[in-house]
Structure formats: C-alpha cells, structure tokens
Structure to design on (286 residues):
C-alpha cells in the first residue's frame, strides 16, 4: 500500500509517517528541501521535494499513491486553493481514500484558520471522492513546545490566557489513529473527532497533572502573538497570517476551545488515550 502525505515537514506529517511505516505502509512525504527529506528518510519514509502549491509535484505524488493524507501547512492563506488542486488531481486518479487533516472545531466563520478547514470539508463532500476527515483537538505537545527551561525554573510562554479551558490530545495518539484508519478497510465517509481529554483543562491544571515539573519553579506567561513575534514556538509570519493567529487566539481567550471527549479515540486505539503526564514522560523520556 502506497500512501502520499502532502506535508511531511510538519509535526503531524512526521508523526503520521512514522506510524504508517511501523504498520508496513510505503509512505511518500512531500517536503520543501533536502534537510527535511533526510528527516523523513530516517523515519523509513520516502520523499518528494517541492512546493505543495505545485500541481506537477502534487500529481506525481497522488498518481503514485493508493491513498492520500492531506495535511496543510499551518497558517497558509491559500488552503482552499491548495485543497482544490489536490481534489482535482485526485478525481483523475485511482485513489481509494483521501484523508483530510482538519480541526476539532472548523465551524466558526469568525476564525479564518478554522473556517478554511470547514470549507475544505465541504469541497470534499461535493467531490464524489472516497474521503474521511480527521478532526483533532489541540496537541498537548504545543504546550510542551512553549517551555523555556532555565536552571531553577520552567517558563511557559503562551499565546493565550492560561485560564482558557481547552480540550487536548497527544499527537502520537492522533498519528496512531490516522495510521490505523489509512491502513484498514471501511473508513470511507467517516469523520473522526480525536480528543484525549474528557473535559477541558486549563494550562494551570495541566501543570498539576505533570508532577515531574515540581522540582522547578513554574511560571506561566501570556505572550500575545500580535505583540511579540519572538514567542518561542511561533515562527515569523506575514502580517495577514499574524492577524489570523490573533483572531484564533482571541477566540480561545474569549471561549476556550472546548469540544470532544476521548470515546472516539479510545474506540480507534482500543486503549485509553495518553494523559498529559504520560505524553510528557514519553516526550522527555522520563
């Protein structure tokens, strides 16, 4: 089975490729350069080097695949146009499944980064292609990646209010579930909400769960992305992308990101999803 992952360079793409390889799939990841290609090859995957907007590259990947997992790079402004290209090429191919990596809450038209994914889901419904949609909660690792570890303290630089109530999921659990969906039959037409927590948890309460950090002083810092572009886990973006991020994090500050429970993920994995404590221990090999 050959599977084409449209963004092998992001954390999701790498995690999915790693899981697919472990299940014996032949995986191609689209990456932007040789350095990224090397990272995928270390995981056991193969690569195409190019731009996700390049129809020639997309056609090369799609026409060689049995199934596709479309992961769109974060914060790009033309996600709908990219999806249209992938759908058009897929309609002229023999793929048996087009998986789309969406978000848990794509329904809010006031948040462009979410609403774009809802529009892509609508395009898939109209495409007459065999598709499935994955809707993950916010990754636990996005909180870990915000850590700044110092000699006597750990600072969490957050682009949203630490009191915000959020539903979370371990990226490795998502990748595991996606790999199972892509390699097993009878998942066409499914829309899967992947959440690892049964109730929303604020960042303050997350830290209580991760007792390994108790040996250091812990500080939570709210650093709005539109005031400080140097926040540790956010790269440089153009002004429109930064505005999209502002709208996204303003939404979280006002409403939290409360959706989903662990039942679907438990069903797919046939086990309980990872807790914050377990995900943290796995990441830092504690």
């Amino acid at each position: 089975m050959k599977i084409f992952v449209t963004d092998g360079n992001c954390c999701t793409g790498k995690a999915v490729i790693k899981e697919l390889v472990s299940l014996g799939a032949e995986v191609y990841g689209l990456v932007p350069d040789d350095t990224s290609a090397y990272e995928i090859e270390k995981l056991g995957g193969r690569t195409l080097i190019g731009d996700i907007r390049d129809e020639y590259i997309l056609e090369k990947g799609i026409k060689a695949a049995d199934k596709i997992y479309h992961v769109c790079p974060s914060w790009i402004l033309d996600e709908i146009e990219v999806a249209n290209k992938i759908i058009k090429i897929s309609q002229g191919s023999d793929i048996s499944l087009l998986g789309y990596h969406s978000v848990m809450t794509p329904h809010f038209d006031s948040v462009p980064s979410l609403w774009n994914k809802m529009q892509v889901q609508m395009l898939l419904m109209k495409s007459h292609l065999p598709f499935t949609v994955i809707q993950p909660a916010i990754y636990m690792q996005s909180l870990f990646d915000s850590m700044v570890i110092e000699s006597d303290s750990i600072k969490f630089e957050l682009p949203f209010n630490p009191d915000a109530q959020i539903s979370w999921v371990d990226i490795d659990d998502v990748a595991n579930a996606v790999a199972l969906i892509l390699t097993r039959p009878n998942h066409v037409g499914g829309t899967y909400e992947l959440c690892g927590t049964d109730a929303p948890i604020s960042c303050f309460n997350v830290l209580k769960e991760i007792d390994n950090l108790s040996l250091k002083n812990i500080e939570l810092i709210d650093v709005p992305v539109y005031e400080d572009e140097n926040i540790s886990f956010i790269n440089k973006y153009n002004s429109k992308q930064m505005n999209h991020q502002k709208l996204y994090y303003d939404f979280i500050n006002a409403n939290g990101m409360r959706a989903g429970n662990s039942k679907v993920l438990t069903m797919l994995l046939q086990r309980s999803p990872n807790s914050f404590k377990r995900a943290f221990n796995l990441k830092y090999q504690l």
In short: The chain has a mean pLDDT of 91. DSSP finds eleven helices and twelve strands in the chain.
